[in-house]
Amino acid sequence: MTFREHLQVFRRAAKYTFSVNRKYTLLLIANAFLSSAVGYVPIYFSARVIDSLIAKAPVSSAILYAALTVGIVFAVDLLNTYISSEKDAAYSAVWRNEDWAYSEKAMQMAYGSIEDPQIARLRYRIRLESQTGQNLFFLYQHIERFTGQVTKIAASAALTASFFTISSVPVGSKLLIAAGIGITLTMQIWASKRTNALTRDFNAASVDMNVIGEHFNDYIEDYGAGKDIRLYDMGDFLGDSILSLDRAYWERSLKNARQKAAWTLPVTVLNTALKFGVYAVLIYAALQGGITTGSIARYVTCIMLLVETLLQAVGTVQAALDNNHYLERYFSYFDIPNKMYQGSLTVEKRDDNEYDIEFRNVSFRYPNTEAYALKNISLKFRVGERLAIVGMNGSGKTTFIKLLCRLYDPTEGEILLNGVNIQKYDYDEYLSVFSVVFQDFSLFSLKLGEVVASGRDFAEDRVRECLQKANFGDRLDAMPDGVHTYLYKRYDPSGTEISGGEAQKIALARALYKDAPFILLDEPTAALDPVSEYEVYSDFNAIAGDKTTVYISHRLASCRFCDKIAVFHEGRIVQTGTHEELLADETGKYHELWTAQAQYYAVKRTGNPL
Ligand code: ADP
């Protein structure tokens, strides 16, 4: 990093720390200043006490100095205790803010970025670096340490300055001490540069290992995975894998610690030699009668403190510069733009629900992949239509839905809503016209009503109505607190566990509650039992009402009620038409899928499986 870049990152970070919680930062500085300054009160007055006793001055002056020492220290300590408690209280706000920043960023990010493994790795890395002492918290520490160190340096230098004017100390000795301080500092700068670089290299090389270890731990601790771990006897395998990761980590960390020690040892040796030299010079000066007994104690303490603190301050500055590398990465995550938010057109609110959608030559590749998941898709559907999408696994059906509701933008081609490219619409508004149930939907562990309404405030009657439409009515009646029952036990031990099929019904009810003009359903009955599945299909017209519906299903018989069926194969649309039209083409993919499925069901005389 160049000096300019260092400055830019530092300025941004400092501005950010002040904006997060100005009070905390100011208290931190005040606390560090007072804690460091207070130590010099006894140093200064003790020398006075000794000198006044040796000079046989009236005992009252020694008592006055002693009283001043105790009084000032007491007052400063009292003030500092208060500042410290205020600072600790403010710290929890800083900490919460930092934690929230990640969640907030995740919510603001485009879905594609969330799924992008490189971004996930970056997020993991900066989080870990923050937890292990880098980034913003490290900056707070630097501010605190540096304030304390500058205070000590100023106080020590002020109390030491007169040493260089003492005539009985030879100029050569003074120069020797000044040179010793300079050399020790130079060595410290050099050594801490090297040790910081070693730490950085070590951390960078640990990222992959940490990510794997963390995933192993998450998997083991996840109660959902507990069944598989036990039944497939994976305990030893997982345990050994983690142990070998740990072992490799500790071996590398030991090597790193030794390398760093080799760099810090010469500084320690020099520092010790310097202290020895200071003692020698002061003892010599005292023997010459050039300084008072009290001053010897003061000079020894202050020169030692000066050297010690100068070394620490160099270390702090070096560490702050080093932390800029981490901060640069930290900010790079928060700077990831959300290109979904570029559009500004409002989506026309139409009472007649007159919306039409067109895919025009749309092709799509997932980020960081070579193969196309969708290739040259062109399709148009109008409001109120029921569009079914069928095809084998991996043929691109879910990807089609993801593009339609703008979780991703097409790699080529465009998608139009009422003739306008959907990228031109305000993103949040555009999303508001879709109710979606994905195959891998997730329900939060909240009250059932909150889950269905996706919010704290919910209209109980409407929640019930939607749950009934989704065939959850009987189960709702059996729930202890009705729509106020907590789902799952994650936050409330008295919560109710639900089956996969029941969860799917709730997800469907949530889509209905949103009451958007488009309903997109990806395998909405995959987890349902045959009776529930039959009920959903037969009630589908009532459930969907006048809404435009896009419906993915493997159960081809369920697509018969749709106005149009699009058959996907290897990322392309290979057929479109009604059920009858498609079935009539005996060489087509639809006929092949239909015939394959028909073998597994009782075939009625109509030839329709179900
Ligand atoms: P379907 O819904 O028809 O089963 P998908 O649309 O889920 O198929 O997947 C289409 C293709 O895109 C598959 O080859 C799948 O492996 C790939 N794919 C799906 N999701 C991702 C992703 N997040 N990253 C990379 N490739 C993906």
Structure description:
By secondary structure, the protein is of the alpha/beta class. Among the domains are: 332 residues, ABC transporter transmembrane region fold, CATH 1.20.1560; 76 residues, 3-Layer(aba) Sandwich (Rossmann fold). It has 21 helices and ten strands. The strands form two sheets. Strands 6-7-8-3-9-10 form a six-stranded mixed sheet, sandwiched between helices. A four-stranded antiparallel sheet has the order 2-1-4-5, with helices on one face. Helix 1 packs across helix 2. The longest helix is centred in the middle third of the chain and has 53 residues. Adenosine-5'-diphosphate binds next to helix 12.
Summarize the structure.
With 610 residues, this protein is of the alpha/beta class.
Helix count, per DSSP?
Answer: 21
Report the biggest beta sheet as strand number plus sense, adding barrel if it closes: 6 strands, mixed
* Highest-level CATH class of the domain at 3-334: Mainly Alpha
Question: Distance N terminus to C terminus?
Answer: 67 Å
Helix content: 55-70%
Strand order of the largest sheet: 6-7-8-3-9-10
Reported by name, the CATH topology of the domain at 3-334 is: ABC transporter transmembrane region fold
Shape: elongated
**Coarse structural class:** alpha/beta
Radius of gyration: 36 Å
The count of strands amounts to 10
Mean pLDDT value: 85
CATH architecture of the domain at 3-334: Up-down Bundle
Small molecules held by this entry: adenosine-5'-diphosphate
As residue ranges, the low-confidence spans are 602-610
